[in-house]
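Whiteboard transcription, Tuesday session. T.W. wrote the structure tokens on the left side:
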């Protein structure tokens, strides 16, 4: 937890609902809800620009002022809602906590050092998990947790269970088998390479257009014999055809 914890000045929201929340945003305010044990949640608003700046920097713990209700109350950021594009914060939930309370919170992972395995040709670093959930006292909540890559070789991985937590009373809640960093060899897949190895691509099937009835070479419907019938109006072949060369004189 930082020595200079950000302070947020909150004000009550008199009306609730989507329409009134949008009016708050149009006025530069961020709608929030503050939860507390044993009391009803408070629907408040805070300065949008200032609050978003702190949240985007990774702040989790804040001091909050609410005139006539509490002064410099410690609150923990519990949830953030974004717009439909997933880029703009439109709502946030906080929980009032005591400095001696044990809480569970997400903490970013910072990879430090250079993995020896990355010196091998084709090696790449996989970083599937960029934060872990820890349990600790509010005052011990770290801004981030450093994970050293100094001994990470090809085919090896660093899991959540191998991370050394900065606080003595801190407990790792994330599954100990969750992979935080891993070095693998990238494999290129060439499209068509497998097909070429099997003798090349198959010849494409050629589909010819259906000939129109009456066109040259087109068979009449229902005609089982090969060839086309004689054209209509054509003269029949002569029965007594004479050999070429003409008649012989008697």
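and on the right, the sequence the group agreed on:
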């Amino acid at each position: 937890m930082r020595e200079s914890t950000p302070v947020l000045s909150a004000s009550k929201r008199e009306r609730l609902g989507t329409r009134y929340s949008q009016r708050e945003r149009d006025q530069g305010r961020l709608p929030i809800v503050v939860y507390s044990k044993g009391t009803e949640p408070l629907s408040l608003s805070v300065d949008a620009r200032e609050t978003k700046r702190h949240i985007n920097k990774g702040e989790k713990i804040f001091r909050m002022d609410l005139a006539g209700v509490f002064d410099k109350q410690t609150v923990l950021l519990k949830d953030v809602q974004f717009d439909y594009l997933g880029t703009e914060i439109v709502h946030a939930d906080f929980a009032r906590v005591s400095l001696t309370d044990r809480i569970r919170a997400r903490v970013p992972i910072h990879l430090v050092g250079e993995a020896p395995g990355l010196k091998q040709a084709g090696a790449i670093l996989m970083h599937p998990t960029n934060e872990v959930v820890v349990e600790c006292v509010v005052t011990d909540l770290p801004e981030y947790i450093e994970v050293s890559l100094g001994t990470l070789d090809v085919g090896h991985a660093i899991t959540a269970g191998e991370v050394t937590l900065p606080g003595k009373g801190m407990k790792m809640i994330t599954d100990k088998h969750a992979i935080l960093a891993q070095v693998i060899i990238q494999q290129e897949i060439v499209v068509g390479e497998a097909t070429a190895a099997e003798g090349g691509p198959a010849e494409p099937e050629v589909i010819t257009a259906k000939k129109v009835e009456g066109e040259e070479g087109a068979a009449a419907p229902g005609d089982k014999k090969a060839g086309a019938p004689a054209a209509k109006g054509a003269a029949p072949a002569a029965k007594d055809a004479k050999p070429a060369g003409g008649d012989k004189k008697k």
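Someone added at the bottom: The radius of gyration is 40 Å.
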